Amino acid sequence: MHDPAVIRAQFAELLGRDDERIELARAALLVAAERDETLDVDAAMATLDAWAATLAERVSADATSLQRLAALRQFMFEELGFRGDVHDYYSPENSLLHSVMDRRLGIPLTLGIVFMELGWRIGMQFEGVGFPGHFLVRLAGEESDLLLDPFDHGSSVAEDDCRRMIAASSQGALSYEPEMTRSIGKRDMVARLLLNLKIARLREKDLPGALLAVDQLLLVFPDSPPELRDRGLLLYQLDRYRAALASLEDYLRVRPDAADRAAIERHMLTLRMMLAAH
For this UniProt entry, which segments traverse the membrane (predicted)? Predict the structure, then answer.
């Protein structure tokens, strides 16, 4: 068992670092640890290290990046058995890294975190790619610049594949643009993980769970207007009126020209009346 306040402080410290110094897997595990008091973050990190050590024994020092990639694919997807969850894709469990590591089942982002963490430990130049609706991994370097799909055994992704994926995920509303495959930082990856959790909890009508994700998102990106607004609205629904009002006030402070300002001001008026009546 651990103290959630200590976990929250560790997460805040980690995300307060420069992007390159953020330990991505540890950040993802700390996200999960606030939801599972039995999770041993250090033990989970040691598991990743042990997997990487096993993998490293199979890769020669002079191996090319493509040879390392082949070894990683074989080890992670064939030997360890990681795979994409096609049956319960939106389950919150697929956004909790320790659960993904235990079940060997996840979504593109969490599988991508394991994929990159193992690759980094054997000297691979991996970068996260914030492709809309489907996280990808870039293998950068002099030998190659490949897009890889961790949801599909680390398979290579061509531009035509990107066009098909964006058309399918947006139901034809979006067209592929090259900037969709730009690399993103670790902080953005953690935010994407939390957004996935937030959406998954809202789908289950788990308002406290969604609020926890929003609170963590505000540690990643303080004063994020959408999260300040959603925090206020979630607190309102949870009958925490004073905190709800403060969050909505913060939202309009950082976004005075918000398109939904009139609706938010109506909520704030109602909250003030309810607080005055107590």
Answer: none
